[in-house]
Amino acid sequence: MTKLNVETRHAVHPEHAKGMDTQALRDHFLAQGMFADGEIRLVYTHYDRFTVGGAVPAGGSLTLDKVDETRTGTFLERREMGIINIGEAGSVEAADETYVMNKGDVLYLGMGTGPVTFKGQGRFYITSCPAHHTYPSRLVTVDEANKVEMGAPETANERTIKMFIHPLVMKSCQLVMGYTSFEQGSVWNTMPAHVHDRRMEAYLYWGMDDNTRVFHLMGEPTETRHIVVANEEAAISPTWSIHSGVGTGAYTFIWAMAGDNVDYTDMDFVQIADMR
Question: Hey, which CATH number is domain 143-274, 2.120.10.30, 2.60.120.10, 3.30.1360.120, 1.10.1040.10?
Fold first, then answer.
């Protein structure tokens, strides 16, 4: 039987967040310990009902089927899902299809897919949100992603954005997902910062050494806070919060969003001079 652990995170008002100490910020906005051998671990949030988690079959097999928190027959009965493999090669089985996933590949599963089985040596990062229509499931390899180069060495943010579940690549209801990697010496992500009140977002930081950390910036633009994030930990970003950060070494971050639209460019930018 698959070992499944689900943690619920309730929504936090920005006025409440202003008074939180370090531990309270971590308890509400940092997802830790999602990748455990032989387990599926999920964090079910009340931000657009977005869910993040990890499945590590460790050479065996794990099946994600019914999740009590949704009170539906199967987890994907009224949801869509995005899965990225951040480990060695593995496979995902769903709706009588088998998808072989190499490191960095992303799998989209449409609403009503049914049980999902993870196999092999992969480390599977899971994102999911409610859906209103069934779009075809699709495996998007690294080579098939839409790539955008941004930033510059002089601002320490020269990076490549890889878009997988995105209107330029495929259709989804509200899930948008991809990841960003950096050139050597560049450490800043998403700076200048922005907010988008139409969508929440989550960042999973990965590909980091044991001693590397990312100082993830969050909070309202004039009430910023930070969380120190280690490898394979995720920062959960409410709609009112910026989501930016700087690393002490090399890292990649997976971004995933859900909300009212799938327009990746729909951002309310914040000038650096206006941040506090």
Answer: 2.60.120.10
